[in-house]
């Protein structure tokens, strides 16, 4: 199958039977789409996370389970409660209840992923049945057969070699002559235990499967008709970008544009697979194509915002002209699998932001770092990223940006490492206004 396309449908796209029907119509109009990768129905993963976190109160657990059941029942009702599937979904809900009871006694990371994965397992079963109702046969496939990962539960990393080999063996033959429906977000460690790729990970799953299947395109169907100049929920004047390069879109995803999981474009870049982002509610509205390069390369393309940033400042009075200090610090962070985003240095200080919350900075990490330097941890910050082209080469870029922010306290600036971004930290409380002001000044309609 040389023309295969992979389509991913996010949570709102499979929220209920009407939404699922719109996805089915998209697939029916695109016979080259042989693999549909689904998220859990909207709201389901949040409920499962609450159950997996070891909710202590039986009444609270019962309420969460009821909400979960209502979402699944709503879809089953629209399908006239097919007997076998209804029983299957009921079995899954009982299984979730048992696992949640265990988590209340002793929550573990492995149990967490096993519980949270049930959302995608249910949505895909329901979607296959909905397709069957419409006369569009499709095969349900358990992605854990191919999405092999390490065992870092909640943030598992795929094993690309195993994924490619298993896709070749298990999935490619199925996709050759029919539509296959599978789960995003979930995988399995070598010992068979269920893992997950991190919140929002279904985009990444779709891109990884597209890469392994040699797809000619990956479509990300969501609730907005494309990637916008900034989050349209924040700035109503934001507009969809028809075409954007891999480099720019990767910066956007990394620095908080929720529309794409940060790792989504890595597989696409490796295999040069164009990625389309569109709305399953309005497929006719078009969307954004992400490609290797685009004819237009504006200086300013988009703004992204990432909240809850942790800024770590390490001070060592004797750092001046001493070698090895940064290596020590990064060695400790690497040992604890903490990755760093932004960095600035001075004579005796290094400031850096982490790509995850303060919970990674455990007492153990702080004690180890504390042996080499004084440590200051600041929270309540937001990272603003301006994305564009040749920004570090064009005179006056910084002036234009910072003039628009003359009344804002800017905590840290990173500029020049890439021609595609200029990042800075502001207080969380100012973040929305900063995006609104910058969008008005730098990205006018
Ligand atoms: P899905 O459930 O389909 O994966 P998400 O909620 O993860 O959808 O992502 C879509 C949301 O991303 C949009 O509703 C929008 O609010 C948000 N978003 C943030 N930044 C952008 C952007 N630059 N362009 C489009 N959407 C964005
Ligand atoms: N269902 C998962 C989540 O809500 C994965 C996804 O939607 O991409 O995070
Ligand atoms: Mg998403």
Automatic annotation (TrEMBL):
Alphabetized CDD domains for the sequence: ACT_AKiii-LysC-EC_2
GO BP: homoserine biosynthetic process; lysine biosynthetic process via diaminopimelate; threonine biosynthetic process
Annotated Aspartate/glutamate/uridylate kinase domain residues: 4-278
Family annotation (Pfam families): AA_kinase (PF00696), ACT_9 (PF22468)
GO cellular component: cytosol
Nucleotide-binding is among the record's keywords: yes
Keywords, sorted A to Z: Amino-acid biosynthesis, ATP-binding, Kinase, Nucleotide-binding, Transferase
Sequence positions that bind substrate: 45, 120
UniProt-recorded Gene Ontology molecular function terms: aspartate kinase activity; ATP binding
Name listed for the protein in its UniProt record: Aspartokinase
Organism of derivation: Oceanisphaera arctica
């Amino acid at each position: 199958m040389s023309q295969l396309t992979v389509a991913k449908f996010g949570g709102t796209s499979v929220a209920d039977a009407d939404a699922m029907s719109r996805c089915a119509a998209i697939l029916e109009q695109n016979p080259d789409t042989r693999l549909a990768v689904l998220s859990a129905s909207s709201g389901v993963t949040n409920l499962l996370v609450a159950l997996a976190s070891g909710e202590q109160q039986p009444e609270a657990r019962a309420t969460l389970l009821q909400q979960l059941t209502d979402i699944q029942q709503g879809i089953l009702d629209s399908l006239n409660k097919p007997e076998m599937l209804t029983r299957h979904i009921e079995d899954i809900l009982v299984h979730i209840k048992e696992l949640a009871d265990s988590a209340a006694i002793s929550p573990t990371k492995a149990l967490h992923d096993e519980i949270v994965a049930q959302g995608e397992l249910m949505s895909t079963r329901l979607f296959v049945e909905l397709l069957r109702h419409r006369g569009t046969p499709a095969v349900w496939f358990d992605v854990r057969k191919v999405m092999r990962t390490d065992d870092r539960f909640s943030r598992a990393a795929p094993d690309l070699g195993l994924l490619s080999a298993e896709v070749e063996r298990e999935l490619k033959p199925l996709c050759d002559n029919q539509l296959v429906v599978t789960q995003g977000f979930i995988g399995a460690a070598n010992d068979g235990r269920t893992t997950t790729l991190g919140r929002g990970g279904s985009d990444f799953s779709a891109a990884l499967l597209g890469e392994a299947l040699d797809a000619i395109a990956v479509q990300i169907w969501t609730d907005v008709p494309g990637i916008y100049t900034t989050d349209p929920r924040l700035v109503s004047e934001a507009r969809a970008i028809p075409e954007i390069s891999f480099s720019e879109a990767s910066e956007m995803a990394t620095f908080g544009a929720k529309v794409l999981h940060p790792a989504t474009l890595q597989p696409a870049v490796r295999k040069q697979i164009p990625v389309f982002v569109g709305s399953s509610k309005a497929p006719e509205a078009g969307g954004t194509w992400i490609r290797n390069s685009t004819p237009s390369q504006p200086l300013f393309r988009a703004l992204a915002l990432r909240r809850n940033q942790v800024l770590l400042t390490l001070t060592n009075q004797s750092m001046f002209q001493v070698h090895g200090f940064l290596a020590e610090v990064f060695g400790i962070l690497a040992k604890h699998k903490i990755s760093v985003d932004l960095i600035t240095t001075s004579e005796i200080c290094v400031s850096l932001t982490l790509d995850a919350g303060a919970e990674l900075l455990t007492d153990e990490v702080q004690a180890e770092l504390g042996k080499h330097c004084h440590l200051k941890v600041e929270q309540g910050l937001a990272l603003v990223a301006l994305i564009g082209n040749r920004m570090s080469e064009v005179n006056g870029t910084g002036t234009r940006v910072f003039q628009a922010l003359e009344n804002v306290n800017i905590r840290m600036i990173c500029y020049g490492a890439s021609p595609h971004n200029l990042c800075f930290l502001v207080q969380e409380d100012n973040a929305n206004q900063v995006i609104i002001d910058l969008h008005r000044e730098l990205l006018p309609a």
